[in-house]
Amino acid sequence: DIVVLGSTNMDLVTYVEKAPQRGETVPGRELRTIPGGKGANQAIAAARAGGTVSMIGAVGNDAFGTRLRSTLEHSGVDTDDLRTADGPSGTAHIVVDAEGGNAIVVVPGANGTLDHLSPGDEGVIASASTLLLQLEIPLPAVLAGARAARRHGVRTVLTPSPAQPLPGELLAAVDLLVPNEHEAAVLTGRTDPREAAGALLDRVPEVVVTLGAAGCLYAARGAEPLTVPAPEVTAVDTTGAGDTFVGALAVASGEGRPMPDALRWAAAAAALSVQREGATVSMPYRPEIDELYAS
Ligand code: ADP
Question: Which residue among 94, 136, 210, 273 has the greatest number of ligand 1 atoms within 8 angstroms of its CB, and so is best to mutate?
Answer without folding.
Answer: 210
